[in-house]
């Protein structure tokens, strides 16, 4: 059983699996949703996008920071069932009943069905976060791939800097944006500062933000993994604040 003493942390990743029958404790992990259910790539990006937004907003499902939603035809359509099944301590599996008629739906309706499943599971696991989840769902559905995830914010006496990224459908490039607001004039300007091959490359480009002599510098993370990622990009990211006429 899960210990109530384990520290809760924000959810950061959502992935989709499939199984004809619910996985048992002594079984290996089920397969990603791909054969039993025909998932368009937009559904995979949906889970990535919602997971990152949950981390940004501090939405937690408990001690696990990965939500693995397992679709199965063995449950009634739309049924949500929690399970003790997990292969790692940071995993939390939830079962969701999905009729195989899902496969005959157009991609737009498939995405809507997976969105409903995702937020049904989140509401089950994070019931106290219901208002935040409703706001998030509205943003996800209304903004789609244009929805941005905030990576870093810094404020000085004169400027507020906000760094954000998109989470597109692979293989589209994820975009990194910087919004600079002049706190004296309240004028803002947003510029795209990078494009990355994989959505989860972007956070490695963004760590410490420095403003010196009206020059903005965004330093990359310093971990070994981050250094492998940022080797493919131009870092640090630098901007002359004078160039941002809106700010």
Textual characterization of the structure:
- By secondary structure, the chain is α+β, with helices and mostly antiparallel strands.
- The chain folds into 2 domains: about 15-145, no CATH class; about 145-245.
- Helices cover about 25% and strands about 30% of the residues.
- The protein has 4 helices and 12 strands.
- It has helices at about 40-55, 105-125, 130-145, 225-230, and strands at about 15-20, 30, 65-70, 80, 90-95, 150-155, 160-165, 175-180, 185-195, 210, 215-220, 235-240.
- The strands form 3 sheets. The protein has a 5-stranded mixed beta sheet, with helices on one face.
- Helix 2 runs antiparallel to helix 3 (about 130-145).
- The radius of gyration is 20 Å and the shape is elongated.
- It starts with 12 loop residues before the first strand and ends in a 7-residue tail after the last strand.
- The model is unreliable at about 1-5 (pLDDT under 50).
Q: Which labels suit this protein?
A:
single chain; 247 residues; alpha+beta; 2 domains; five-stranded mixed β-sheet; four-stranded antiparallel β-sheet
In short:
The protein is of the alpha+beta class. The chain is built from four helices and twelve strands. The longest helix is centred in the middle third of the chain and has 19 residues, at 107-125.
The tally of domains stands at: 2
Order of neighbouring strands in the sheet with most strands:
2-1-3-5-4
For the secondary structure, the number of strands is: 12
Output the number of helix runs.
4
Estimated radius of gyration: 20 Å
Present the secondary structure layout.
Blueprint: E1 13-18, E2 31-32, H1 41-57, E3 66-72, E4 80-82, E5 91-97, H2 107-125, H3 130-143, E6 148-155, E7 159-166, E8 174-182, E9 187-196, E10 209-212, E11 215-218, H4 224-230, E12 237-240
Parallel strand pairs: 1-3, 3-5
Antiparallel strand pairs: 1-2, 4-5, 6-7, 7-8, 8-9, 10-11, 11-12
